[in-house]
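Re: the 448-residue chain
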Amino acid sequence: SDRVFASMRVAGPNPAMLERLTTLDGRFPVTAAQYQSVMGAADSLEQAMAEGRVYIADYAVMTGALNGTYGTNPETQKYTYAPLAMFAVPQQAAPDRSLLPVAIQCGQFPAEYPVITPATGTEIWQMAKTVVQIADANFHEAIAHFARTHLFIEPFVITTHRQLAPNHPLFQLLVPHFQGTLAINYAAHESLVAPRGGVNDLLSSTIDNSRVAIVKGFQAQGFNAAMFPRQLRDRGVDDGVALPIYPYRDDGLLVWGAIHDWVATYLGLFYNSDADVISDRDLQNWAAELVAFDGGRVQDFGDRGNGKIATVAYLVDAITTIVFTASAQHAAVNFPQSGIMSFAPAMPTAGYVPARSIAEGSVNWFDLLPPLDQAQSQLNLVYLLGAVYFTKLGYYDRGHFTDPRVAAPLQAFQQRLQAINAIIDDRNQHRPVYDYLKPDNIPQSINI
C-alpha cells in the first residue's frame, strides 16, 4: 500500500535515504497539479517545500549500472534502476501526518521516463513503487548495509589492535564492539561478494558493478558526516514538526544520546583536558594510522578532518560514532532483512523488465518480480542474515573493565538503555511497530 511504501523510507531496511527537497529538481519535473492530485487542493507543492514537508529519495548512484543475469542455458536478464521518488507530509492541521508517496520517475532522465503518480493507473503505480523498492534493496545491501557499517568499522578494528595496548582505556572500550566483525567481513568476501555468490545471484547488477557501488557508497560519506545527528541535519530530516513520524530518527537519537553520555563519562575518567588527548601518543598514532594511505584511509576523520584529535569533545563524538555504527546503525539496517526483505514481492532484490516498459503499460507487475526460485533464495539468505542475535548493547563480559571507577557509569548506561526500551514500547502503541532500535534488540558489534 502507499502508506506502507512511504513508511519504508522512515522505518524500513534503508531508513537514511530520504532528503528534504527545498527547490524543484529539473531531473524530476513534478507539476503542482500532480502534487495536488495526491495531497489535495488545499495544499501546494510550493508551500509544502517552504515548510520543509517535501522529501526525495534519489537513487542516482545506480545510473549506468551494468545489468546482471540469472541462471544458465539460457541466462535471464536482470535490471537495475535509478529512480527518483517524491514524498510529502500533510499540513499541520491534518488529522494524520504520516508520510505519503506523491510521484515516481523510474529513471534519472525525464525525456525517457515520465513522472508516474497514483492517478497514472493502479498497476503502473504499483510497478513504479516496486522499482523504487528494487533500487532501495540494491542501495541497502551494497551501500547502507555493507559499505557504511561493515566496511566502515573494519579499519578501526585493525588499527585499534595495532596501535593500542590491551590495557589502554580506549582499547578496552572499543574491542567488545568489534567482536566478530573481521570474521563476518571475510565470510562476505569469500561467499556473498564473491563471483557467483549471493550478491551476484540476487542483486540487479553484475558482481563487479556491485563492488563498484560498494566502493562509491563507502567513499561518498566521510567519517564526520556519518555522525548520527549530523547526517540527520545534512539530509534535512531533523525537524520533528515538518517530518513528525520518523521512528529511525527518533529512536536512534535516544540510543545515540545514551551511548554519547556513556562514552563521555568513561573517557572523562582518563582524559581531564584537551591537553591529555593531545599528549596521548598512542591515541594520536591510532588516529594517524586510520587516515594514512598505507593504513585505514578513513576520510574526514579528526577535529579538522586531518586525522588529528585535539579535543576531548571530538574524541567523545568520534568514539560514539564508532560504537553507534557497530551496534545501533548496523541493527537498523541488518535486522529488517528478516522482517521485511525476506518477502520478495515487498522488496525484490532485482527487477526482470526494463524500466521504460513500465510507463508504456506493456508489462504487468508479475513480469517485474523475481522467478519463484530467486524469491526462495532471497528468503533463505536475508532471513538468515537478519535473524542472528548475539550479545546485547551495554552488556560487557564480567570483569572486562579493570578500573573500578567504570562500574557506576556502566550501570547508569545499562539503566538508561532499559528506560529506552520502555519508551520505544510506548511509542509503538501509537505508530507502526518499529523495534529495530530497541536496545534489547541491538547487538554490541557487527557479527552477522
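The longest strand covers residues 100-105.
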